[in-house]
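User: My instructor asked us to take a sequence, write out its structure as tokens, and then describe one feature of it. I'm not sure where to start. Here is the sequence I was given:
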Amino acid sequence: MTKSYSVGLIVAPEFSEKIGQKLVEKLPESLKKHKTNRVEWKIEMITDPMTGAAETINEIFEKASTYKQEKKYDYLICLTDLPIFHKRKVVAADINEDKQVILLSIPAFGWFNLFKRIKHAIIYSFNEIDGENKETKKDSAQVIWRGFSISPIQKVKVKLRETNDIHVRYLGYPKINGSFRLLLGMTYANNPFQMMSSLTGVIAVAFTTGGFGMIFTTMWKLSHLFSNGRLSLISLAAIIGMVLWVIIAHELWEKVKTSSHKRISSLYNLTTISTLLIAVSAYYLVVFILFLGMSLVLIPAEFLSSTLELHESVTFVNYLKIAWFAASLSTMTGAIGVGLENEQKVRDSTYGYRQKSRYREMLQNEQK
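Assistant: Let's start with the prediction itself. The structure tokens for your sequence are:
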């Protein structure tokens, strides 16, 4: 007779929800393969803003235990896109062996091969609960969580004072590796390319501004006179200026109200900066390609050579430098002050705003 296990999967809305949908499809077969073929796995996904809004791990585990009892699941998995810490180290997974509840912090798994890492971590966590993990050392404080990533993971056991439950936690080790991977994961969760889609109106204005400037030979001459180093500095100034403008104009900076939240607020702000840097850099690349095409079409090589007083033929590099300077100049002069097409989408791509929205939604659900 085939035995069946039921698994509850509680996910935060949006980013975690997308990963959860893939897990519902792929995880049962992977569990069957790695555990035993004589067991059927049934996974049910529940979307709850609690996992993406709770202030502490205890709140998530308390709600998860309630779900597990009500739904009579054999195991329960929580996926959150919030960062979790243990003594200033990044927590990738927190396992309550007694209650058979697993909490995974998605950003701790980084950016690349994310789904594969999370799926492997879940299988490994099930083995931890069932006592099937054989990787041990005399000093049980550290083991390598194989298959997680290149950098190692530290395993610790802790007893929570609030519940007296024993938890197994897997931490980023060393701390700097875990923090860097967390920043990458949080940036990916912010979906910088979705934010970039809100810059289409800015691109239109920048292209119009730069296109108007391109008809004047002054831009051609300056781009020819400027060294690659100076053009690079102008590009950097344009991109950083755009990032600062978006943050200030749309109030994306997370204010530190209490010292206890200082680290989280700083991490949220750093993630906002990295997200915007990627989005604005992608925007800049699009504008550069547009100007390159315009310069190749509209500026005859002979006229450009005569204007620049070149002693040799015009090369593709000359057109590249014109497009490079035009992209930077239009970003600084034309894009600053232009409203984004979808301000709500930009705010939804920041951790602080997203968490506050989920918290309000969670309170509304509790009052119903």
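For the description part of your assignment, you could build on this observation: Residues 53 and 355 are 5 Å apart (CA to CA). Try explaining in your own words what that tells you about the chain.
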